[in-house]
Amino acid sequence: MSNFDLAIENRLIISKIIRVVGYSIAFLYFYKKTNNLATFITLFAVGMLGSEIIAFVEYISINGFSQFAISNFFLKGSRNSGTFLLVFIFVSFFNKYKVAHLFYGLVSAVIGNSITKFDCFIKGDLCYGLETKCITGMQIKGLNPSIVNVHPVPLYDSLFFMALAIVLISFEKKIEMWKLLVFGFISISIYGFFIELIRVNPEILSIFTINQIAYFMLFFLSVVEIAMGNIKKVNPT
């Protein structure tokens, strides 16, 4: 399978459009369901901070503190593991939010990711996977093209988030929202942990990537929340 070719300038323009569309649809979905702008902004900001923290930790683990600069903290790349982990920790400690708002926040994030993951694919900026001979393998072109067929991980991500969004929305009125909420976080943590096995990311602690560590923490905290019933205790209406 081969990737279509586009000029770098066109790829960058298209990727920005995709990201804007993804964020916009995520916001419109959440706002239509909750009519609560403040919660969306809060969860979005917490998610972005989590993404930057994980990216920064990865940067420091590779380059050390000798090259530390404030600018290194920002815009080091999107890390969904940090986004979902910090949001989960945040809502666990500040459980003033309604379950419905948290659920729709999760669904909006999942919908947004199903779209914005195409941004990585179009840009071809090293977010693809390892070399493969699978039928899904392709040569990625763009900012950092691959010279062999690799796993198009952003497309896998997009399909996963699309499927998860369908499941969450389909069972919204059939299963209690707090159960779907935890199911969503656990699904994301399991998928995220194992997709790292075919993704090109530097390993931390010899065998795990920083994303795998974050996803494991998300899975562990999700299980603890189920056992303690904390999510269930959040204001349900």
In short:
Helices cover 65% and strands 2% of the residues. It is mostly helical and 237 residues long. It has a two-stranded antiparallel sheet with strand order 1-2.
N-to-C CA distance: 48 Å
Low-confidence stretches: none
Order of helices and strands: HHHHHHEEHH
| Radius of gyration over C-alpha positions, nearest whole angstrom | 18 Å
Task: State the total count of DSSP E strands.
Answer: 2
Indicate the structural class: mainly alpha
Shape category: globular
> Spatial order of the strands in the main sheet?
1-2
Main beta-sheet strand count, sense and barrel state:
2 strands, antiparallel
> How many distinct helices?
8
Q: Which labels suit this protein?
A:
single chain, two-stranded antiparallel sheet, 8 helices, 237 residues, mainly alpha
How would you explain this protein's 3D organization?
This protein is mainly α and 237 residues long. The chain contains eight helices and two strands. A two-stranded antiparallel ribbon has the order 1-2. Helix 3 (80-93) packs parallel to helix 7 and helix 4 (99-123) packs antiparallel against helix 5 (153-170). The mean pLDDT is 82.
